[in-house]
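As described in the Methods, two query proteins were run sequentially through the folding procedure within a single session, without resetting any intermediate state between them. The first query and its resulting structure tokens are shown here.
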Amino acid sequence: MNTLQAIVFDMDGTLADTEDIHRQAFNLAFGEFDCDWQWSRDEYRGLLAISGGRERIRQYLAGRRKGDDAQLAELAAAMHKRKSALYRELLSGTGIRLRPGVERLLREAAAKSVRLAVATSSSRRNLETLLQTTLGPGSIGMFDAVITCDVVEEKKPSAAVYRRAVADLGAAPARCVAIEDTRNGNLAALGAGLRTVITTHAFTIDNDFGGAALVVDQLGEPERPMRVLSGNPGGAPCIDVALLELIVADAGRPGSRHTAAASTAE
């Protein structure tokens, strides 16, 4: 029987509800660059289909500013650099907490010698800020592999970031589970051969998560059980190591009870 070797977490929207903080930082940066753009929640929800903040700005600029590709790319990079600094400032001052069940699962996995990794399109500095704010100094050391856009530039839905995470862990993809929150993240992890558990939120609830083992509203706590949107957790109230072991063991079996049907399209 397959045994769970590792859990690989996405960052934004998965470890913590950071997406609206990103949106606020984008809007602040636009103002500093004398742009009258203000991304609403609804508009930002659609823009999340583009992985990577710099790429998001670059595509938005293309239809609104004149200039050759090099000029627009340079402006997008400058905007994104300032946006990232503003994001970290906001993050440090929000009192943000990890999403329900995240810290519980991290500590349980570590206690049971299940390896941990992060695979994100965000930067290491952003990740360090989030972890220091929520778990304290040095908490990035909980993870055996940390793959960010500083390591792998290719963005999700490319499987590159997950392939690198699994390689750095020295693990077999089929014995790893990715915790994700977006369609692009789900596709990236599946493309690298991992099983996926999706924790949705307001910005991704309507994404298509076909192929995911489970789709839930959060990882859950004993006093705050998860709500299952797709898949069959066998009555488990939370995502824990035992459930992830079952998902890995079930991988590849015909009619697997843990494979979620596709949800409504984006």
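Immediately afterward, the second query was submitted; its sequence and tokens are:
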Amino acid sequence: MLEPKFIHLHVHTAYSLLEGAIKMPKLAAWAAEHNMPAIAATDTGNICGAMAMMHEMPPKGVQPILGTQLLVKSPKKNKNKFSDEADTFDKVVFLVQNEQGYKNLLKYFSKYYMDSEKQGTPHLTFEEILEHTEGLLLLTGGVEGLLGRSLLNGQKEWAEKITEKLQKAYPNRLYIELQRHGTEQEQATEQGFIDLAYKYNIPLVATNDAYFLTPDMYEAHDALLCIAEKTYVSEQNRRRVTPEHYLKTEEEMCASKYCSNCQTLRLYGG
């Protein structure tokens, strides 16, 4: 088998309740059909699909990569120090590297749901994600992540401070995440991500934040989001993803319009 050029590292399965629409058996079958040797499941706020991954993927020759997507309270600039006073939340992706990483992820889940119970939205603080890092890889979450918000707000120096903190906490295990779903925000931040990656010698990783299996599932998934948010399809001011948020093949991801810098940017996966 040829060395893969792309592996999905940011996928929401049906275990991302009322958000993901990819059933685990179909995810495993899809990866095997497309000769993808490994694939990650990064469900929102849980690892409930872990057992299903271990059951479905190895028999098909696919290595399961356990991960999750969690919310982090946006660090706020306060006299050049980090503060968690902001009331906004950013997305980060954790991937489990080994047994210690799994144990540390469980510690994060305890904080995520127990410590923030009285504060409404489950989340971690920025300082908390710097504490139990051994055995975990961190993806910065793209335009909706910690760095993305700073770059969108024109706070390049603040994005650099966040990068420095993360790099120290996750040595050789930090990846700056690039996504191309065709949004204006992604286009506005892409060069900023690239500049940070080169300045701090951090690998770039291309991901496609997949919520559904094939393009024809877009409208059904959009209706699923409406059910989750208690809104209507006809409403304009509601959560949406794009038709590009499907599980793309290696060929699609490495095509020029999706990933024109695959070689020059040292993309290690996606």
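Residues 24-259 form a domain with the TIM Barrel fold (CATH 3.20.20.140). We note this only descriptively and draw no conclusion about the first query from it.
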